Inverse folding.
């Protein structure tokens, strides 16, 4: 039912309407599925249905609250229809406008459904006419302040601004609804709208409708920007991870190939065994898409690597001791986590020794965290070198950088070393039963 409102009551209702539109937009964007719909510009039929399911129920409830309680500011039929057409296209706008206005149509407001469907259709046509769909998201609460600049650029350079098209269309449909509801054109009860008594109040009504649409788009666009940044950060992280891994792999391969070349002359059978182990290692290195692997696989990889190193140095000079908690074997760890540290122990700690060297590898669980220790009795690290990114070895530096990228501040990596006595590397990381949290890397 349409009624005239006093100035204070009209302004109060319009302010509440804008606030309700912003609150509803902020509420909807908390749903991950809705955020994904906003992030996708080209939507299939299922996604369009999902968009309708998210938007039409709360907007239709707003119309119902206006009918049963007289709360005019809950009715966002015009703004909701326009938004759905602008975001989802002609079909979404047409169906959405019709569904939103069903409670009003059932209350004998006969023009509500046809007009809402028409507004949604017009907004959908505006969307499809825009060359760059991204321009839709430039519709902000203060876009109208750019009108003088737009006019100047249009006159001087002949260049328009497509972001202005939704703005002018929103203004046009709001003015059209006000004019249509004017006394003498249609019965008052056939269409609900604010009935301003002069052009000043009409301007407020138009501004409020524009602000409702603009506030929703602004809130949703902020979320789209955050999602885009998050996606870019994941791509950057993956690029950095690949770069770090590519630094580790050639360093390791160089040593193993030297081992094979030295064996092939005087012990072909042993060289053949090394080649088989090397083939297992290469097969693993080619699986670069795996950021995380079970600890069991990482230990199998280390076994192949250490078997080659034992052959290279001799069993008397290099001994391996493992204390592995069985419960840790299925825990997911970063791929190529152990090999650089073991290699560092052999190359910088044990290789210079004349007598036999030992490497102790330990894993255990504690309070939801995985603890890994690699200890050797090698030459140790001087305090000066220890200050250079945990020993200065490229492998150790990269391990620390990878852990920082993957876990942030949720990991610990400590290196304790005494010259002439050996080095101990202690790592604590969150215990993961699956690699799902990092599936995007």
């Amino acid at each position: 039912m349409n009624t005239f409102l006093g100035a204070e009551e009209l302004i109060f209702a319009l302010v509440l309407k804008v606030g309700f539109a912003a609150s509803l937009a902020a509420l909807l964007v908390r749903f991950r599925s809705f955020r994904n719909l906003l992030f996708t510009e080209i939507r299939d039929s299922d996604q369009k249905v999902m968009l309708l399911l998210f938007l039409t129920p709360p907007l239709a409830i707003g119309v119902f609250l206006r009918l049963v309680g007289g709360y005019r500011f809950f009715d966002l039929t015009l703004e909701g229809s326009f938004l759905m057409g602008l975001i989802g296209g002609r079909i979404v706008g047409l169906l959405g406008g019709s569904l939103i206005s069903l409670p009003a149509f059932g209350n004998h407001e006969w023009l509500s459904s046809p007009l809402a469907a028409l507004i949604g259709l017009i907004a959908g046509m505006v969307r499809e006419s825009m060359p760059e769909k991204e321009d839709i998201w430039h519709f902000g609460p203060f876009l109208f302040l750019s009108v003088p600049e737009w006019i100047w650029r249009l006159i001087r350079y002949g260049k328009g601004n497509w972001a202005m098209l939704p703005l002018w269309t929103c203004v046009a449909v709001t003015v059209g609804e006000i004019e249509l509801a004017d006394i003498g054109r249609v019965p008052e009860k056939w269409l609900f709208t604010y009935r301003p008594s002069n052009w000043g109040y009409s301007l407020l009504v138009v501004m409020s409708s524009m602000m409702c649409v603009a506030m929703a788009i602004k809130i949703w666009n902020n979320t789209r920007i955050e999602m885009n940044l998050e996606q870019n950060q994941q791509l950057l992280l993956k690029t950095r991870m690949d770069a770090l891994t590519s630094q580790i792999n050639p360093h390791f391969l160089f040593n193993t190939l030297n081992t094979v070349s030295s064996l092939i002359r005087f012990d072909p059978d042993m060289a053949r065994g090394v080649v088989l182990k090397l083939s297992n290692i290469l097969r693993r290195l080619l699986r670069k898409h795996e950021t995380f692997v079970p600890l069991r696989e990482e230990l199998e990889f280390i076994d192949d690597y250490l078997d080659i190193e034992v052959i290279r140095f001799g069993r008397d000079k290099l001994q391996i001791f493992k204390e592995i908690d069985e419960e840790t074997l299925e825990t997911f760890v970063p791929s190529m986590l152990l090999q650089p540290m073991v290699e560092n122990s052999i190359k910088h700690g044990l290789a210079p020794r004349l007598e036999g060297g030992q490497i102790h590898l330990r894993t255990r669980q504690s309070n939801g965290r995985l603890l890994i220790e690699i200890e050797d009795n090698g030459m140790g690290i001087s305090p000066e070198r220890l200050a250079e990114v945990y020993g200065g070895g490229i492998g150790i530096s990269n391990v620390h950088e990878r852990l920082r990228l993957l876990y942030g501040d949720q990991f610990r990596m400590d290196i304790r070393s005494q010259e002439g006595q050996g080095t101990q590397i202690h790592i604590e990381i969150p215990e993961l039963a699956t690699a799902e949290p990092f599936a995007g890397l």
Observations:
- Residues 7-231 form one domain.
